[in-house]
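Lab notebook, bench 4. The sequencing result for the construct came back, and we need a structural model before the next group meeting so we can plan mutations. Quick request posted to the team channel:

Model the 3D structure of this chain.
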Amino acid sequence: MRVIFLLTILMSSLFSYQNRIRILETLYLNDITFKGFSFSEISGATYDSESKTLYMVSDKGILFKFKASFDNKVHLKKISAHYLRDRKGKKLSLWRSDSEGITIDNRGRLFVSFEGKPL
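Done. Here's the predicted structure in token form:
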């Protein structure tokens, strides 16, 4: 079974009068591997404009990291993939690793949301 992840990059101008959003490009990201991690079941993404890094999380509790730049096209370069871990550094158990969303705050900290009951 072939899994294709479709990424549509939206660009908005925060300083524009009408604050319009336009589609910059649509990328088909398939057959991507990161040192043994399969790029699939992506459930959330966030972009750090300071470090120009795009983060994505999968339903399997994996964090994918890309270097991203935008002009008239989208340019992505694989950086790394890691299992999400708890505060003690332990890999999340299978039933706790269903990550559903990700965001970054103004201090550069990543926050990941999960499906299921809170810890």
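The radius of gyration is 15 Å.
Will bring this to the meeting.
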